[in-house]
Amino acid sequence: MTNIVEFHNVRKSYGALEVLKGVSLSVPKGSVVALIGRSGSGKSTALRCVNGLESIQGGELNVCGRKLHEAGVKLRELRKDVGIVFQSYNLFPHKTVEENITLSPRLTRGLSKAQAREVAQRVLAQVGLSEKAASYPEQLSGGQQQRVAIARSLAMEPELMLFDEVTSALDPELTGEVLKTIEALAKGGMTMILVTHEMAFAKRVANQIVFMHQGVVWETGDGRMLDAPQTPELRNFIGNGL
Ligand code: ADP
Ligand code: MG
Asked: Has the keyword Membrane been applied to this entry (predicted)?
């Protein structure tokens, strides 16, 4: 099976602070990997390394056929293949939903206006917001805005999607619709890595769960590992919630 992402003993420091201390993990094409762990365990840093927002200091990191541990990787090319969605959705407030979505594809993929509109319609349908193309962000709920942010990423036709706690800023009643959108993408075969605190969701959707602790992969397995943790650290993390 092809791996879209491979970490081999990856090390990453911010100055003197080593945050990733030899992380190894693989993401096969079409699979969903959920990263869980305490705040500060290095989950966001790991994701940011995958799309080149952070450089690594040791080990090897292969993403979509590129060797990020070697010099000369074209980050702009990499980021066409790797979409990332954060907790804050950062839509342009003075642009419509459709304009927010078509901006990047027009600039970086050279699509005509008509082609970009077609793409926008398709990705809005994927996130269940076809009727909102002409709306402005402030006219949407937080959950809908986050789904637009996901659609905006999909419009680049990425090979891999990264989600970093995309529901953490949302009211609980809006979380479900965003998770449903992500679950539908997963069912459609999208390869993804997601950082989440939603354990039931991770268990249901992820093929592999990775518990990060103190900058390494402490424990990994399928959803069953959440019912039968092998280490006191994972047991403690699950038991105490977050
Ligand atoms: P998580 O997402 O699991 O909460 P992070 O990857 O955000 O963890 O952070 C891991 C550690 O790295 C934390 O101690 C955090 O303070 C530190 N850190 C994260 N980003 C930076 C940065 N840009 N500069 C310095 N330290 C950082
Ligand atoms: Mg984080």
From this structure: yes
Nearest CA to ligand 1 atom 11: 40
Spatial separation of the C-alpha atoms in residues 70 and 146, rounded to whole Å: 34
DSSP sequence for 214-226: TTEEEEEESGGGG
Average pLDDT over every residue of 145-150? 97
9-39 pLDDT, tens per residue? 999 999 999 999 999 999 999 999 999 999 9
Residue 242 has pLDDT above 80, yes or no: no
Q: Which domains does the chain have, with CATH numbers?
A: 3-90+158-239 (3.40.50.300)
pLDDT, tens digit, for every residue of 55-85?
A: 999 999 999 999 999 999 999 899 999 999 9
Q: How far apart are CA 33 and CA 118, in angstroms?
A: 30
Alpha-carbon gap, residue 25 to 36, rounded angstroms: 13
DSSP helix/strand/coil, 73? coil
Separation of 45 CA from ligand 2 center, angstroms? Answer: 7
Protein residues placing their CB within 5 Å of the ion ligand 2: 44
Q: Which of 7, 14, 54, 195 to mutate to test the pocket of ligand 1 (most atoms within 8 A of CB)?
A: 14
Query: Which residues are CB-neighbours of 214 under 8 A, at least 6 positions away?
Result: 21, 41
14 lines ligand 1 (CB under 6 A): yes
Question: How many whole angstroms separate alpha carbon 65 and alpha carbon 61?
Answer: 10
Q: What is the pLDDT of residues 188-219, one digit of tens each?
A: 999 999 999 999 999 999 999 999 999 999 99
Secondary structure (3-state) at 136? coil
